[in-house]
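Exercise 3.2. Students should predict the tertiary structure of the chain below and write it as structure tokens, then compare their answer with the key that follows.

Predict this chain's 3D structure.
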Amino acid sequence: MRQPGRKTKHMQLNYPGIGFTEDGRVPEGYRSVVREEYLGEGRDVYLRVAHGILGWQLQRLAGLRVRADAAVAHPGARVVSGFGAGPFRLDAPCEVVWVRRPTVAAGAQSAGFGYGTLPGHPARGEESFEVAIDAAGRVVLRITAFSRPANWFYAAGALATRAAQRYVTSRYIEGARTLAAGES
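Answer key:
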């Protein structure tokens, strides 16, 4: 059962369809990625992953450097994820556009957030990280994104950009598995 996320007014987000990842929509002209991965069974697994997602741990476990203006994701929070070193560091500024928190009630639910790109990000679009538990206790990670290059320079490297996105997504999945196992 999906619960409506809390949304906020967005300043400087640079793409159409703000908040679309919350319900799986994609603006026209944008590439989309949807990955779902089974993580395990039970409320403990669900809560470990949910808290890891909401506390930026998923990005850190994926190998990204994270600078956020809040310890926990909330609508309007700003975060800069980066990878690489020195002059080869690429920073990706984003703003959280929706958040769904775990509830105390047992049963099917999901938790996570979506964030959108800000000027300076190599892409324009949105990405979300959500963990869901169904009525039987099955826990699944869902990563949803839509994007397009921010400018001609990144468009010229589209193949490399897509490969980098696949790689980072695979690292998010490994990070979620680490959270699910209670190893972080």
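Discussion points: The first strand starts at residue 6 and ends at 7. The chain has one domain: 6-180.
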